[in-house]
Amino acid sequence: MEAVSSAPAPLIALVGNPNCGKTALFNILTGSRQKVANYAGVTVERKEGSLLTPSGKRVRILDLPGAYSLDPLTPDEQVTADVLLGRRSGESQPDFVVCVTDATNLRQNLRLVLSLKRLGLPMVVALNMVDIARRKGITIDAVRLASELGVPVVETIGVKTAGVRALIKMLDDSSIPPRARSAASWLPLSASDIQHDQTEVRRILGLVGGDRLDGVTFSDRVDAVVLHPLLGPLILAAILFLVFQAVFAWAQVPMDAIKFGVSAFGNWLGAALPSSLLKDLLINGILAGVGSVLVFLPQIIILFFFILLLEDSGYLPRAAFLLDRIMGSVGLSGRAFIPLLSSFACAIPGIMATRTIQNPRDRLATIMIAPLMTCSARLPVYALIIGAFIPRRTLAGGLELQGVVLFALYIIGVASAMAVAFVLKRSGTGAGLQALMLELPAYHWPNLRNLVLGLWQRVEIFMSRVGTIILALMVILWALSSYPAPPPGATGPAIQYSIAGHLGAWLAVIFAPIGFNWQISIALVPGLAAREVAVGALGTVYALSATGDDVSGALTPLIAHSWSLPTALSLLAWYVFAPQCLSTLATVKRETNSWRYPIIMAAYMFALAYAGSWITYTIATALS
Amino acid sequence: MALADLGIGTAARVVSVSSGDAATPPELGRRLAELGFLPGEAVRIVARGLMARAPIAVRIGTGTFALRLFEAACIRVCPEQPQPG
């Protein structure tokens, strides 16, 4: 590095309408050098990356949330407007703005360019997706566009590195001067301002080309089927069903490999280490616990793979469209579908995604039911119990019985969420009309780079949870389960005499009516920190409580022998409803800025869980 | 005529966009304008939902948006040719 000045690297903001390919461009510019965090005080995702230009200039790139205008209606748009205006505390105003536009949708995108011009920040327009535009027969005279707009225009292709070279070159060449920071002023646009801008957009489009309106596009032909009133819902159901079948079927081989690896490593450690407390902690505490959570990584990857695929292809908003009437009937917006779908992965990003819902009541209702969506942390628990109690059998039509049961659990979660939303709607006052206004972007092939990057970020989050919170809980649980040691001459398994054993015995009294034994009762306690920890905890509890040769036995056959079917079904029902995740409750507190809602949430979910499990246990016992 | 009364695929132009009545959110009209629902823009219905034929997917210019019926009710349109039937 030659003569690196002490001034901080210039900050370049990417701004654009939603669905303009801005994030794909950001991924190409910054590669894996991204920091994902939150804006201070709010939970809007903040993505910053850095780029080293060919001449050795370091620039910081900020991917601002997509916005339709600088007069915000959602918290996301508020962040974008505030950052651009230099009004957001803790954020410096960008030195340079790259306004990303979709070359196939300039009619909409250029209005934002005109708004941004009014701000007076140095800017360049990235004419993105020119390849797709060209294929559609739209050629845009970029030189003319630049002279009409009065700002530089570079052509980019959001998914190809070569297409971005021109933009990088421009960032390299343009000296981005440290500006005298003047508080940018902004007057909200009136309807006639917007109309005036649109007249200007039409004039420019008439000069540069791109004014052509498509007849029937490829997306229209797809939508004729996908949004068909009868075919559409069938396709949606088939896609969701396929996802859940895949989560079970495809994950089997890698899961077996991980299981085999962990147990082989445990055996090797067992043979190599002298018998000691440390060995016990390593094998029975850490390895058994973390291993039994790690084994579910393949399923989580497959689930996220599908969610990202559906998101990137443009299908997700179509699903929201198809479900809008059903959602509307229980007082939710079709927009709530995307936060709720994210909640299938994890309620926390789901609850955060409710920020795109403008109506506060609608948003609150969505937050309250998000944890009823079956998150991926429940998957390890479901998988364990289904694997142990539901026979591997192929039903008529080639369906796997285990997959069908899993699908049913998801459906129960969704149905109860809808019921709760309906109750919330009825108990609320003056519902009012809720807006949908959801963009249905053109379909496009999902991009491998974006998919891999997105998956990697999820894997990182999961692995860091395994590595930190789950590992710590495993060690604590091991200690609780090992001390105090059993008295001389004790006959039962050691854990019965430990602190955990006493705690479990006490909890078992509460949970006895719903069929939980003390081992399950113990495992539910660390499960409060993260649902999947319960599996690891069961592993620890059973590895420690088993005697003799059973210690190395896998958890699945162990619980298959020691639990009754009603107990297993009751635990499944418990996991559909129970407020088993403290991080979710903490997120609700942060998002609603009040303790009221997390407390209500915990209370209603606990009541549902206990009632649901009791009914399940009672019916299953009566039938068996 | 009202946007929601258009048949699927019938080409039309936006005539006016109002802010709706007292029950609609006050910022509705402005947001519709920001999305591109502006007088003179080409508009057509791409698809409709199953129940009560709502929501509707509307092509406006080169973009497509899903609207609920009360949102669509703010938009008056004029068909480019007489509607068949």
What's the arrangement of secondary structure elements?
The complex is a heterodimer of chains A (624) and B (85).
Chain A (H helix, E strand, L loop, with lengths): L10 E6 L5 H9 L3 E5 L6 E8 L5 E6 L11 H11 L10 E7 L3 H14 L3 E6 L1 H6 L6 H8 L3 E3 L5 H13 L17 H18 L9 H9 L4 H19 L2 H21 L4 H18 L2 H17 L1 H15 L7 H9 L1 H7 L6 H10 L8 H12 L11 H27 L10 E2 L8 H35 L16 H13 L6 H7 L8 H13 L9 H8 L2 H13 L4 H11 L3 H28 L1
Parallel strand pairs in A: 1-4, 1-5, 5-6, 6-7
Antiparallel strand pairs in A: 2-3, 3-4
Chain B lengths: L11 E6 L10 H8 L6 E7 L7 E5 L2 E5 L1 H4 L2 E5 L6
Antiparallel strand pairs in B: 1-2, 1-5, 2-3, 3-4
Major sheet of chain B: size, sense and barrel closure? 5 strands, antiparallel
Total number of beta strands of chain B = 5
Largest interface: A-B, 48 and 40 residues
In CATH's first tier, which class of the domain at 11-175 and 187-208 in chain A applies? Alpha Beta
Unreliable residue stretches of chain B: none
What order do the SSEs of chain B take from the amino end to the carboxyl end, as H and E?
Answer: EHEEEHE
Determine the CATH superfamily of chain B.
Ferrous iron transport protein A (FeoA)
Q: How many H/I helical runs of chain B? A: 2
Q: How many H/I helices of chain A? A: 26
* Cα separation of the termini of chain B: 16 Å
Mean pLDDT rating of chain B: 86
| Main β-sheet, spatial strand arrangement of chain A | 2-3-4-1-5-6-7
Q: How would you describe the oligomerization state of the chains in this entry?
A: heterodimer
